[in-house]
Design a protein that fits this description.
Blueprint: H1 7-33, H2 36-65, H3 71-89
Helix pairs in contact: 1-2
Length: about 90
């Protein structure tokens, strides 16, 4: 089906598959319990999962590309990621 030759790409894609599976499980749990309070609690837990997966996938990508970027470029990329999180807080 797919031929993945790079372990970094495999790790990044598997983290996204896990993240998507958690999201689907959360949706099914919301349907099952059919309660606004429980749905809100489940959604609150998902608020932790999304950013965590983003940080892990970004970190894996940067590790895979570490030899291609200078230190300054790495700092600029990490600053960009930090600004995304700061922007989400405002």
């Amino acid at each position: 089906m797919f031929i993945i030759r790079d372990r970094i790409v495999l790790g990044m894609s598997m983290l996204r598959v896990i993240s998507g599976s958690i999201e689907l499980l959360a949706a099914f749990l919301m349907f099952k319990y059919n309660s606004k309070e429980i749905a809100f609690q489940i959604n609150s837990i998902l608020a932790l999962v999304g950013p965590t997966i983003m940080i892990l996938v970004t970190t894996l990508g940067l590790i895979g590309l570490a030899g291609k970027f200078s230190l300054l470029q790495m700092v600029v990329i990490m600053t960009g990621v930090a600004l995304i999180f700061i922007g989400m807080k405002l």
